[in-house]
Design goal:
This protein is mainly alpha-helical. The protein folds into three domains: 93 residues, no CATH class; 122 residues, DD-peptidase/beta-lactamase superfamily (Beta-lactamase), CATH 3.40.710; 47 residues, no CATH class. A two-stranded antiparallel sheet has the order 1-2. Helix 1 runs antiparallel to helix 3 and helix 4 packs across helix 10. It is globular. It starts with 8 loop residues before the first helix and ends in a 22-residue tail after the last helix.
Amino acid sequence: MRACSSGSVGTLNTLGAVAALLVGIALVLSLAPSSASATSVTSTGAQDLSRVDAFIEDAMRERNIPGAAIVVVRGDEILHVKGFGEADGQGRAVTPETPFRIGSSTKSFTALAVMQLVEEGKIDLEEPVQRYLPWFRLADEDASARITVANLLYQTSGIPSEANAASLADPKLSLEQNVRDLRGVAPDRPVGSSFAYSNANYDVLGLIVEEVSGQSYADYVRRNILDPSTCATASRRLRAKAAESWRRVISGSSACPAPPQTALFPDSCRPAS
């Protein structure tokens, strides 16, 4: 649930550069022929994949990204896997097997875990955080009591973006201690008034998952989200629910869907990716 290994601005800028790089990859691939030429891409793919490689190399130079690894897939087929640049200060080359921190991708896991527990009736998005963590406090006691689970989920709690940023550099700090350290943090806007991205929101959500499930965050995610045996069925059910929701919108039988309480993910949802 930590965004990076350091709280430095330089690290955050690098994460932004990587995000921009991934968007660019998607654009490059979207420009590649997709229907008539699908066979040529899956058989040799030399021309299209060389464009991807060239784009990656150019973007890494422009954004000072030291190393990256990519995989290109079409359907269930892996078309291309390659490492670029250096993995560390000693010049070790990046390979397709080089491990990378996945950063804030874990926020999606956390949100999914919360919604699973919502569907099981164990979490109510509109309840205050203090229902699940009675000791939860910010420097502002009134704001502390009014922050709901939904405020955390939608990044509208008022907790500032820089809250507990230094903790990113301390891998030994427990999730609970990180949340308890928020007692010295003052909100920078009224609860629910506007969006402000903060890692701390999802630290608190992760701790709620632990408290409600009786499992560590890592164990919960491993068993309920990442376990391959639980993935495929939920993926099909998620797509079916999404399709049905949009059919109602298109037919005029319902308005555009609001942030849901229980319908966002399928029963006992385990994502396919």
